[in-house]
Write a structure and sequence with these properties.
The complex is a heterotrimer of chains A (184), B (211) and C (336).
Chain A (H helix, E strand, L loop, with lengths): L1 H22 L3 H21 L3 H25 L13 H18 L21 H10 L3 H22 L12 H9 L1
Chain B lengths: L1 H16 L14 H13 L2 H18 L23 E3 L15 H5 L5 E7 L5 E9 L8 H5 L5 E3 L13 E3 H4 L22 H4 L8
Antiparallel strand pairs in B: 1-4, 2-3, 3-5
Chain C lengths: L2 H35 L15 H11 L10 H18 L9 E2 L11 E2 L9 H12 L1 H9 L3 H32 L4 H7 L8 H4 L1 H14 L11 H4 L9 H26 L11 H22 L5 H28 L1
Antiparallel strand pairs in C: 1-2
Helix pairs in contact in C: 1-11, 1-12, 2-11, 3-4, 3-5, 3-11, 4-11, 5-6, 6-9, 6-13, 9-11, 9-13, 11-12
The chains are: A mainly alpha (184), B alpha+beta (211), C mainly alpha (336).
The structure holds iron/sulfur cluster (SF4) (2 copies).
One iron/sulfur cluster binds next to α5 of chain B.
Amino acid sequence: MFEQIAFYFFSVLTIGLFLVAVFSKNVLYAMTSLASGMVVIAGFFFLVGADFLGVVQLIVYVGAVMALYAFGMMFFNVTKNLKEKTTSTGWVLIVGVTAALLMTLMFLGAINPDAIYASLPMSDKMTNPEAVGMALFTKYLVPFEVAAVMLLIAMIGGIVLAGKKMDTSLTDIKDEVLQLKDEE
Amino acid sequence: MAHIEEHKETHTVQKEKQNYVMLDLGKTPKFGMPAFIQVVKRSLSLELLKGLGVTFREMINALFKGKMHTTKYPFEKLPISPRYRAIHEMLRLLESGHYRCIGCGLCEKICISNCIAMETRYDENQRKEVSQYTINFGRCIFCGYCAEVCPELAIVHGGRYENASEQRAGFSLFEDMLTPIDKLKEQKEFAGFGSISPNADENIKKTPLAY
Amino acid sequence: MDALTIGTIIKILIILAIVSAIAGFGTYIERKVLAFMQRRLGPMHVGPFGLLQIAADGIKLFTKEDIIPQNANKFIFSLAPVITAATAFIAMAALPLFPTFTIPKSLPVIGGAIVPSTVADINIGILFILGTMAAGLYGPLLAGMAQSNKWGIIGSARTAVQFLSYEVVTGLSVLAPIMLVGSLSMIDFNDAQAGGITSWLIWQQPIAFVLFLIAGFAETNRTPFDLLEHEAEIVSGYLTEYSGLRWGMFFIGEYANMITISIIAAVVFCGGYNDLAFISGWFLFVLKVVFFFFLMLWARAAWPHVRPDQMMWLCWKVLMPLAVINILITGIVVML
Ligand code: SF4
Ligand code: SF4
């Protein structure tokens, strides 16, 4: 009973927050509701007893959205409303509806409850982090490693892209040289 | 380049007089191994802990060795120099207790901000008597001319420096500034311009500059 | 309701009341300690030894006019302090604060209730605490962005920078002790160090301890890393436009976070609340927490603060590699 109330409460809250994130014209509102939506999603994990995943959701998304804020801060005046330029409403509509349909189809399985089962059911013998570790390092070892390699590649790529001119410090370059560079 | 050389010269001149120690910080390496080694050296030499030690020592000094610096101002006051020029005092003659002012009017005349106002008349002995005397401390700039010009050492500067007021004009009457007759014994002679403060010895510090 | 539920509710009330009081008291202690270290007296005149200064400050904060700048985003502006204060207290839910005790039966209504030492002993305690404390940084971030003040914006930019730098170090530094203990629960950490001083994790993990302290200073934005509101550079950073009660909420949040970090350091690295010979463990525990709290004030009196770029350099180029190496070595030792 209590869990159901909590579930519906969190659902309404999440959907509402993400709707604000999409429709708000104010960057600050959009990002704040995105961040709080992410935090509320952690609530679902706590609800089904996956404490570890819940906290991971919290930590990871708090950090990720924080980076988004940094970009928002750099690109927009956050206290003013944005004027959006939509050139063709038609395309937006078509793409949006198709994406929504696809998502619905993907989760259609959920309509038949028998089709859903846990391939690695929870057991009372293990604590939460142990269960997660067990799943990751036995059944899903290959995807886990692939994801790790992918992240490594992304990291190296990021360093290479950002670090191209790292060996020259802008403060050490003489002003005249900098001016020459500007004129080029 | 020239100014650097000049600087070096003054530096050596100073060296002869005083033992300045130039801290040998070395060069700041920018890249690679030397920079890394420097970082490791600095982190392992525990200089941060020395900083903590200094503050802790000061705390012990303050708490247990009576080296607290605070003066609780309105309750405690530091002695001020006798040269300090604050609110004026009118002195009395020590023998008779009569006020010293002879009503010559020199102070009124010399006051550059025109803040002394006085009236005099002859008393029954045909001596001059001060009938009115006020100083407007809203105008007074505490220049000290009045005290310097007074032939009788009658008007001097006292030590009352807390003269905040609600109005711009604040008048002080003759009677207010006059030494109360019962405090005549405590009346101090003005030590004069150029006198040193009572705690001057304590305040002497080594000057950091080479004169 | 059973005894434990009532006890938990009482515990929550205790935390809310006592910790906010302690946070207020912390400001007094901070002013006193800083004053002594600079050979001053600190607050002296309100009450004996200035003790009632807290009350006076509280009254001042409560009755001050609540100003919201004209161009500020009013909703976010008023939301931000609540985030900081709330997350600081949520983090405390998983912290052991006082020994478990039973309220005597003679009292009406609440008699017989068992007040647990931890409100919620979840098996991922330390991650939960660090996660909520991290979320607390949204307070300064939103505050700075909502007030349409350039110092505020710089303050929140620095918040983002600081957060992204130290968060990695915090996580990695507690990972090594977690590997040794094999659990994330604060209670398990405490129980693993029950065997006297020699069993304290600080001896096995000195590097992790130092790293955690540094990251903890950054997390609570205490002095070597008080970039967000450094008066000498950016007026007051994200706090520039705040006054009165909202400002007070940020303050309480900051002090609650300081207490949280002190408690984590005491539980994870310094033996928790285990009895030592004949000395009561909880007494020792309070002493440890007080020591770490004092350390933060001490550092503030002694050290200058770092620049944002130095802070990033420190976190990414020095502390993070150290933490990773530490984890590698710990892992190898654990495996052998
Ligand atoms: S101190 Fe100067 S300005 Fe003041 S009353 Fe004397 S002469 Fe006038
Ligand atoms: S100069 Fe001295 S003696 Fe002359 S009127 Fe002024 S106070 Fe009196």
